[in-house]
Amino acid sequence: MTDAAVDEASNAPAVRPVSKAYQRYALGLLLAIYTLNFLDRQVVNILAEKIKVDLHLSDTQLGMMTGFAFAIFYTGFALPIARLADRANRPWIIAAAVAVWSVFTLLCGFAGNFVQLFLVRVGVGIGEAGCSPPSHSLISDYVPANKRASSIAFYSLGTPLGSLLGAAMGGVVADAYGWRAAFMVAGAPGIVVALLAAFTLVEPRGKAKAVHPSAKPDQPSLMEALREIAGKRTFWLIALGGAVMAFCGYAQVAFAPSFFFRNHAAELIELAKPLGLKPTGFVGLVLGVIGGIAGLFGTFIGGQLADRLGAKDRRWHVTMPAIAAAVGIPFFMAAMFAPSTMVAVLFFMGPNLTNTMWYGPIYGTTQSLVRPRTRAIAAAVILFIINIIGLGGGPVAMGALSDLLAKGYHLGAAEGLRWAMVASEVVILLASVFFLMARKTIREDVVS
Known about the structure:
Elements: H1 3-10, H2 20-46, H3 48-55, H4 59-85, H5 90-108, H6 114-128, H7 132-142, H8 148-156, H9 158-177, H10 179-187, H11 189-200, H12 204-211, H13 222-230, H14 233-263, H15 265-272, H16 279-310, H17 316-327, H18 329-336, H19 341-354, H20 359-368, H21 375-408, H22 412-427, H23 429-437, H24 442-445
């Protein structure tokens, strides 16, 4: 090989683009994977009241089981897995992750006490740590930069889809066969999807190396990658904004079914009868379908708006989520004090729509703040911050505040939870502040 050829090879791109048809297939499969990710993560919420009665748990223990048990290891393992994803085969990492979390979801159905359930939820968290960082990185290599926010938003549709399926399926199966069976039904499909990921997702970095074997990819060390991220003020502001959104969102999702069971119990029985359902199945179906549809629209609209408005001014990538977060607050407050079940559910559609609009813009912006070989690490770091604060702290804080208000201030279980939910929504204003602060730095921090 001539010197010129060597130079040309060494300057070759790190990845080779895939066809548009394959982009659609890969994004569809990754969406399916992320849907199962959230289904297995969120099905526990609709089952919480049944598990609480069966295993004699407090609200604080419910919060630990639904949030902390999952989040502490999910976040802890995300960074080393992301580091591996910046070097190794990302489809294989994703496939292994799906298999692990699916097996542990199945095992949730065999737990006999709080400790056992806590430990298997830890296992689910470890498996799911291998999903989003390599997926975000892979999507950023599959699609052009001007489609990044909408493509990651499409992938993020797995959040409302998984939550919808988890609530609807979990409630109906739990009523018919018990909460243990619901975990087994939730975990089983992941084994098949893991095989599809292993054998049909391609690693575009591998293709590039085959064409340019002499190429030397831009592979920063871990410390170099972290220093690159540390120098981006925009990164830290959107991470804090996302963490606040997740803190409130995960807390509300974890306890929304319990809110309805405690505050609208008599009406739930009457509403469920004509459909041949019990209250758990009815709440799961209604919250899953209505909340899921609103979340789908919010996630999709957020990504599309970010790409269209951001093409003219990148500041819209953070401005739009800030506005959306604030707009959802009055709808949530109305739901908390609505006189009837269905009125409350309809008002819940507002925050379910607006509070999901930040996924695509914020995660897409994260991928644009760093070099290609740092993208998985950047995704892992922002997910670490968002999930350790949001998923790890939100449900536990909600449960503890609910217990405090119910017992310490003698409000009772129903009113204690209602006012804990109200307090969580007020906190969302902090997210809008952080997103708006990022307007000042985003244009200078973006590199791709």
